[in-house]
Amino acid sequence: MIKINNLSKFFGENQVLKSVSLDIERGQVVCLIGPSGSGKSTILRCINGLESYQGGEVRVFGQIVDQNANSIHGLRTRMGMVFQHFNLFGHRTVLENVMEGPVYVKKVPVKQARAEALELLDKVGLKDKADDYPSSLSGGQQQRVAIARALAMKPEVMLFDEPTSALDPELVGDVLDVMRALADEGMTMVVVTHEMGFAREVADKVCFLYDGVIVEEGPSEQILSAPKHGRTQDFLRRVLH
Fold this sequence. Notes:
This protein is an alpha/beta fold. The chain has helices at residues 40-47, 72-77, 94-104, 110-123, 139-151, 169-184, 196-202, 220-225, 230-240, and strands at 2-11, 14-24, 29-33, 55-60, 63-64, 79-82, 157-161, 188-192, 205-210, 213-218.
């Protein structure tokens, strides 16, 4: 579903991705782990066409991702993205936030969009907050609304960029539960995360990045329990203890 081949990305003189290659199959959950600044979030942004890249290529659904191509808008409607910060519209209710994309982008009739949005809010445990405004919700609740909003576009793949890192620890579990349920339903997911327990439990594949390179990748149990590379071992020693 997603094929990344020799992807290179520069910010000015600084090369943040160095010939990264990665294949993601339909229905797979892939977790990207590694220290801050290793290029994890940049990979997600290149998949979604939010960042241009200077070398190699990214293909999603067989199409090359090119920020400047007319096809990028069509590709983006097939991908959901959830960010570290929730980016909800403060002047719209929770329900209106979830309805917005289907109504204005996909031209779904308002009645249908409303019914589907309420269903999604029920799925993330927030149907009773439909008429509230984001400012009255906790961070964990806002993040679950952001997930419902992304799902409202009926994406074929979900990209999560550290979705729990801005949350208080006691709110993390509810968001991870929603993501676990999505994985159980067979949603293709690429997740940048520091939640090693979640990666161990849910990921089909874990990729450890360091300094713009995928140093090691493999099944979650193997990478997280018996990493072969010294850098992976050092990183896990620090985050798991």
